[in-house]
Please model this.
Amino acid sequence: MALTRRDFVGTATLAVFASTTAAQALELGSSKTHGALSSWRIGLVQSAPWDIDPSRIHEDTTRNLARMLEVIERQGPECDWLAFNDCPLTGRAASMEPSATQVEALHAAARRHSCAVSFGCGVNREAVLVSADDTEVQRGPLVTLYGRRIALLSSMSSANATARVEMERALRQGAEALLIMRSGPNAEPTWITDAAVGLPLLHLSAACDTQIPGHTSDWLGGTLARDTHGVTLGHMAHADEAVLKVQLLFDA
Model:
């Protein structure tokens, strides 16, 4: 069902996403605790990209920040991690970086709800992770969240040779899951999924009205979650604005 931009922040689809078995994940309760969590509740926020008018930079980034904060307020209490696409705050203007004030507003909301927040921005839409505690803001491709190493990558930067080297290094350094962010027609190169074989995969898209080209026949766009065997356990169509909720279970 297609959702309006007003309604999407209050809508959720439940899926189970486990690095061991779905049956084990179903037996888990709330994971709102600190330390190295063995089970995470993740909200994949598929929102339409709102770009920035160069003549209205302050007004437009303020609007986008307000939308992100609304999502965190409404979905944060039920999640350990809210992941946005690669341009929710600064739009698809590749040269823009969030201000310190904007990042601090996101950090305050993350701490208030004990829910980490990630998003992309700036040149190559680099991943940013705002923790749920006082940990400093981290930049991808390799971040540490709740004691686990997670690889974060924008599909826009995936074609960059330097980004590829950094991503492959992150995977070699023990990443335990992979999140790919996108907001445009860039289909991820096969080397990403080939390098991440055996890892849980979160593929987070921006909502769009038309089909994104360049996908394989078994996935026609949108946001999805796959387990360590490549089985799709949760999917959201590319036209929807909604939050796909998945559960990631780590081996002890």
